[in-house]
Amino acid sequence: MQPDNDLRYIKQVMYRLKQRYGRPCDVYKWLSESVNPDTGAIVKAVRKYSLRKAIMMPTKTERSFAYDLSYVAANKNFTYGGTFDKSSRYFLIDSEDIAARFELTPNDFLIFNHKHYLLKSFEVWEPSQVILVNATYVDGTLPFEIHTVESQADITAEGLE
Question: What is the pTM of this model?
């Protein structure tokens, strides 16, 4: 195949996959983070990019166990630890669905189905055609979602002359 045919073929495959497996998803990009020295409050600036259809792969969920640090470091008797459920999932993002100058960084995150997915790794395929994202979700994590609300009101006044 010619390079132009390859790109056309990738676009056709992405279109078919988005039609069958595409789901709405949001990509959040950290812009800045600052600390107020008086109050100690952390102010984070985030930009939200809404994707109408990102391709979702099946989720792999596994239970993990974390040891107490003193058990690992000092080779002492086991004191305590904890288990948690961790899910990983692959996302395919079409570069045409996102802003032209957008670049993923390891600090960005995804929100899908009100779940906060941290980026584990990502690859950009072809000349900025498709982004393959491997993301993880830990059960119980707060989503830190931005909800856009629009309202409209019509006010009429009667009897005023």
Answer: 0.73
